Amino acid sequence: QSHTGVISLLPALPKSWPLGFVSGLRARGGFEVDMRWKNNKLSESSIKSINGTRCKLLAKSAVKIYNNGKEIKPTTNEDGTLEFATQKGNTYKVIEL
């Protein structure tokens, strides 16, 4: 979900889908999102930057973000969203803790 310009990871996962994945979702701001979940919790997500714009992300719990194996420290906004700069064509791994 990204209708407000913020990518929300698994905002409304049905309980009847405890395990699964989805790939190729398009998000506002020029992003492509893949997600995997287990036990009704996000396990990993990847966000590909199509345009190189800043990414705003909302996760249900704490996450770590990586680009090419290096951890990225996002800015935490007042509304609880995370924000980080991206480079066009790069993919960012989001791991829920």
Written account of the structure:
The protein has about 100 residues and is mainly β. Helix content is about 0%, strand content about 55%. It has no helices and 10 strands. It has strands spanning about 5-10, 20-25, 30-40, 40-50, 55-60, 65, 70, 75, 80-85, 90-95. It has a 6-stranded antiparallel sheet with strand order 2-3-4-10-6-7, with no helix packed on it. The radius of gyration is 13 Å and the shape is globular. The two termini are about 20 Å apart.
Helical fraction: under 10%
What share of residues are in beta strands? over 45%
Shape: globular
Mean pLDDT: 93
| Low-pLDDT windows of residues | none
Structural class: mainly beta
Q: Give the end-to-end Cα distance, rounded to a whole number of Å.
A: 21 Å
Which key terms come to mind for this protein?
53% strand; single chain; 97 residues; 4-stranded mixed beta sheet
Give a short synopsis of this structure.
The chain has 97 residues and is mainly β.
